[in-house]
UniProtKB/TrEMBL annotation:
Residues 54-150 form the MULE transposase domain. This is MULE transposase domain-containing protein. It holds the Pfam family MULE. It comes from Daphnia pulex (Water flea).
Length: 199
């Protein structure tokens, strides 16, 4: 039997993966091939889940197999620990595959479906957005910072803004906005940026 735990060194990064918690395997047949879903067993029961930040992405490829991971950040704790929540190994990157994944997550953790203080971050891929909207219609969805910055750089390039220092200034403006802790502070900083006050 495998066990796994993760040591959190900051609110953003993990270090040292060790084997501590039981992992159970679920096998699902689909048109896209065979999906192996690994549900990470946590101490939190489904009815206790809340104050969660989730993130989902297809992170890497192992030979001919893709690996998609749903990670969870437990926001009710001061250190906001992070760990894999559900893993999926799949042969194809299709909408059906991601719908199967989130259908299973909704079945295993029904309290997530009705949760009012849980959000999920993705890269905005249509298949992800569609599956999440189908099985978790009330969950707030956000685009991750990396893809926001990439989209911003592409938009700047289309506007003929390609100078490295100028692009870095725009990205820094975005990052500054994202770190604001209140909506009021966000809008104050936004207006300052528009007026050129921080240039």
């Amino acid at each position: 039997m495998q066990y796994g735990s993760f040591h959190v060194v900051s609110k953003t990064f993990l270090s040292k993966i060790s084997i501590l918690e039981p992992i159970s395997e679920h096998l699902v047949k689909s048109q896209g091939g065979v999906l192996y879903l690994f549900e990470a067993q946590t101490e939190a029961k489904a009815q206790d889940l809340g104050s969660l930040g989730l993130q989902y992405d297809t992170t890497f490829k192992l030979g001919d197999i893709y690996v998609s991971v749903l990670i969870v950040r437990y926001l009710e704790f001061d250190q906001e620990p992070v760990q894999p929540f559900v893993l999926m190994m799949h042969e194809r990157k299709t909408s059906e595959v991601h719908h199967t994944f989130f259908r299973k997550v909704a079945k295993w953790f029904p309290s997530l479906v009705s949760s009012t203080n849980t959000f999920i971050i993705t890269d905005g891929e249509d298949a992800f957005v569609s599956a999440i909207a189908t099985y978790f219609p009330n969950m707030q969805r956000y685009l991750d910072w990396g893809h926001i910055f990439s989209n911003a750089k592409r938009a700047l390039a289309r506007s003929m803004i390609t100078n490295r220092e100028e692009v870095a200034r725009y990205i820094n403006d975005l990052r500054t906005l994202f770190y604001k802790s209140t909506e009021l502070n966000y809008h104050e900083q936004y207006n300052e940026i528009l007026s050129g006050g921080n240039r």
